[in-house]
């Protein structure tokens, strides 16, 4: 171990740079349609934390490549990352990010701050810029509970590694425009955890209603969004049976109002 090297990616860059995704040579041209892409990820804060949810569809061009892909992963005990973009590279980046946070904690003896985590993920995205220029972009959404600030926080990124803190809610992926529009009408500052989960699943349903790359709840196969809830007590993935109760309730209400709940005018 190189003295003073607290970043696992930096250590890997010195000892075995060929293992880093960003160091691998890619043929010239655009490879966007050669690999599955994942969308859509939604996050929202509530009184006691933050919730993140992702649909389960991966597409390859006009083909549904996978119906039950996982796009939301725990980064550590108090944070979660959702992936949008090239699925294979995104999953690899998440694994490296998870190892980075664990490595830092073991070396430094303390957990990286929320801002430090967000900055580290930005650096990993920036290292992937060469791949992104060839159509293999990865644009994650990062969220977690900041113990120092005593609140849930959400961070979005661009393909160059630009980091932006979002207020209240955000979404990334091909269906993000529709999901954010939905949350603009549904979101309230006084949400509890269940209301926040309901709102993000409603937003994913609205995204799937208008974006073919976003998958809605699959009732016949019982495939539902992956939902993570992070509070001061830590993060957890909601079991599918809990998510299905909320999804079934939403679907039943959509039978009466296909466009979803109406927001009050005042």
Descriptive report:
- The protein contains 7 helices and 14 strands.
- The protein has helices at 8-15, 87-108, 114-127, 129-132, 176-186, 193-210, 240-256; strands spanning 37-38, 41-46, 49-54, 58-60, 63-66, 72-76, 79-82, 85-86, 141-146, 151-157, 163-166, 169-172, 226-231, 234-237.
- It is globular, with a radius of gyration of 18 Å.
Comma- or semicolon-separated keywords:
alpha+beta; 266 residues; single chain; five-stranded antiparallel sheet
Quick description:
The protein is an alpha+beta fold and 266 residues long. The protein has helices at residues 8-15, 87-108, 114-127, 129-132, 176-186, 193-210, 240-256; strands at 37-38, 41-46, 49-54, 58-60, 63-66, 72-76, 79-82, 85-86, 141-146, 151-157, 163-166, 169-172, 226-231, 234-237.
Low-confidence stretches: none
Structural class: alpha+beta
Q: What's the tally of helices?
A: 7
Compute the gyration radius: what is it? Answer: 18 Å
Q: Kindly state the percentage of residues in helix.
A: 25-40%
Percentage of residues in DSSP E strands: 15-25%
> Biggest sheet, open or closed, and with what strands and sense?
5 strands, antiparallel
Question: How do the strands line up in the largest sheet?
Answer: 12-2-3-13-14
What separation lies between the terminal Cα atoms?
Answer: 60 Å
Total strand segments: 14
String of helices and strands: HEEEEEEEEHHHEEEEHHEEH
Chain-averaged pLDDT: 88
Shape: globular
Layout of helices and strands:
Layout lengths: L7 H8 L21 E2 L2 E6 L2 E6 L3 E3 L2 E4 L5 E5 L2 E4 L2 E2 H22 L5 H14 L1 H4 L8 E6 L4 E7 L5 E4 L2 E4 L3 H11 L6 H18 L15 E6 L2 E4 L2 H17 L10
Helix pairs in contact: 2-3, 5-6, 6-7
